[in-house]
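Rather than argue in generalities, we reproduce a single protein record, letters for residues, whole numbers for local backbone shapes, just as it appears below:
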Amino acid sequence: MSAAAVEQQPHDDISLTALAEEIMERHPGYRVEIIGGQILVTPPPDGPHGEALTDLTLPFIAAGLHSSESKLIQGLGVWLPEGAEDYAIPDFSVVDADYREHLIESTYYDPAVFRLVVEVTSSNWRTDLHTKVAAYANAKVPVYVIVDRKHQRLHVLTDPIADEYDNHRIYSSGQTVVLPDSIGAEVTLDVAEILKAGQPTSD
């Protein structure tokens, strides 16, 4: 999911977290994140976004990754080390089963428990392809998958180094992707099926 708007802190005496909570109260159903000291506000996704996300999770379920060792969770907040108030909410994550023991603050968890995060792009696809690449790499999330509905491609990023990933592979329709076994099981994704499910009604 991508942010449709960016709001910055208007007053030094109001914390970003307080502003984020105020925005969430005013706009139920919107996703609010703080990345790089900026508040990113994302409207509710369209149907194809959710359909692509559902199709994407099925191979993870079939591989047994929702078990006693790991969990599959949508919308789980990951604390980001860039700023005291920074956090992101990926569309989908594979996390260690004991993630509940690693709560950092509010509903955001230690990035060390995240094995993989997934974003399915929406209107502002640049956020997922640029801003969140740096954010997740800085947090040392080992695998980042992006379903790029804008360009009809699937990205798999691995080996985080500083604010980027050392390995960035791009796949198109007709290809299959075998994800790193570091996530806990062998997962193969059919790029065509995922992209077809997420095909936007309009750009």
